[in-house]
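Quick question, first post here. What does this chain look like in 3D?
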Amino acid sequence: MARPDKAAAVAELADEFRSSNAVVLTEYRGLTVKQLTELRRSLGGNASYAVVKNTLTKIAAREAGVSGLDDYLSGPSAIAFVKGDPVEAAKGLRDFAKANPVLVVKGGLLDGAPLTGEEITKLADLESREVLLAKLAGAMKASLQNAVSLFAAPLAQTARVVEALRQKVEAETPAAEVAADDAPAAEAPADEAPADEAPAAETADAAEATEQNEG
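> Answer (accepted):
Ran it through. Tokens below.
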């Protein structure tokens, strides 16, 4: 490759590194041109797949400020540059590798952090961003519907609940407390004279009558 062509290839790769939120390095040894085309299709529209030269890729990575890939740049290399959901791309690579074991996922980067081939496989086991958002939206919708149902409950229903609660409280009140409330007061009314004061008054009246007779 002539020097101008090398410079152009490095610049193109550096741009791919800068614009990708994830990159996956693979070894494609043994894959046919038809299989490579199928692999590109399996990645979906948010990723591109390019066969690269290791030396030029190392230079491009350094120019883009990317590190951690040198150990994976050996043997026949091809890179998936992901500009969308990395989980979707990882699933495409995993599924293709299951059908075509000659494809080897060596490692990569996710938002600048290095990933091993095993970690990329685990990434593929996660749910995609669209699925997670759909589940979140469903949970929020269900919560809102529950809230609307609660606030829209008829007043009659609320009254029935309150009445049932009142009856429950009354049923649980001890019988002794009810009996104590119904029992008459033990104390005599304040305006009635005590029984033991009556004889004393009668004795005073008799003494006064005796004195008058004697006089």
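The chain has two domains: 3-126, 128-172.
The first helix runs from residue 3 to 19.
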